[in-house]
Structures are given as C-alpha cells and as structure tokens.
Amino acid sequence: MAVIKVKRPKLSFGEKIYFGALIKGFLLTMKHAVDSMRGKSRGAKELASSGLGVTMQYPEQKWDEHLPEHYRGAPALVTDEQGRERCVSCQLCEFICPPKAIKITPSEIPADDQWAKVEKRPLEFDIDMIRCIYCGMCEEVCPEQAIFLRKDYAITGLSRKDMVHTKKKLYEIGGVRVGLVNKWNELK
Fold this sequence. Notes:
13% strand, 5 strands, 2 domains, alpha+beta, Alpha-Beta Plaits, elongated, EC 7.1.1.-, 3-stranded antiparallel beta sheet
C-alpha cells in the first residue's frame, strides 16, 4: 500500500495568531447585537420573546405551544374512566428502565374483590426523576397502557426526596386515560 504524504498549508502571521477569526467572530456578534436593538432579531416573533433577542422570558413564557408532537416528558401513571388503576404490577417497566429509576412493589388483590382475576396491583410505585432519562421505554413496554410520558419539562424539587415520585403523585399528575384496558376486559 502506497503512503501519501500530505503537506500542511503555510499559515500567514494573522492566521497563526487567529486574528482574522477573532475579528470575524466579533463582527458577527456585533451584527446580532445591533439587530436585536433594532427589534429585528431572527425568530423573536415565533418565540414571543421580549423584543431584545430571541430569549424566551421563562417562567412567564413557556414552550408549551412550541413543543413538537413527539416530545417525551416525565412519566406518569394513569387510571381508566372509572378511577381504577391500570397497572397490573407486571414490572416490565422496572426491568427495561436503563437507569433503574423505577421501583415497583407488587401486592395481591383480595379474593373477594370483583377484579380478583387480575391477581396483582402495585403496592408501591416509585420513579426517581433524578435518574430518569425520559427514554420512553417504560411507556412502550407497558401491556396495559398504564404509564405515559406527559409533555412536562419543568420538574423541580428542593430535595432528593421531592424528586422521587410516589404512586400517589404519579396518579395525581397522570390523570385519566380513555380507551380499552386489557386488565378490565371480561373476556380475558
């Protein structure tokens, strides 16, 4: 195999000290500054910015109307139309979660309950939002469509304990989801 030697181009004095690149960057920055002072910033109208630049004034202005349809936010548990929990505690979401952010403790449904055929329900269902990477694998693997990624990007807490969403909080923020749930199907 032949070896090809490539010669480096000779740099001028200005190129060696990056003088041209510095001037070019400075002029571009000044152009954007002057445009924003004149109210002609590119993208300012679409973002409903304050007029000076394209910076959105969060939290007064939010991205809610600008989020794409495929946006994946924080996971939440949902109930059906009658307020029953959809989760059958199969633990598939716990097993498939790459950062191991989900922890489920299953419990039995009493034999005298109308839905005893379901066998299990979650006693505890915790999601550590600090560890969650919003990959959506939990939503994809759920056979009962009990967990959904909502369009929420502002998840805050003052301590690590606040960032662990319990079953109660997950149902609270998840709400009701309409549609067929295999868990409650009489024919199953």
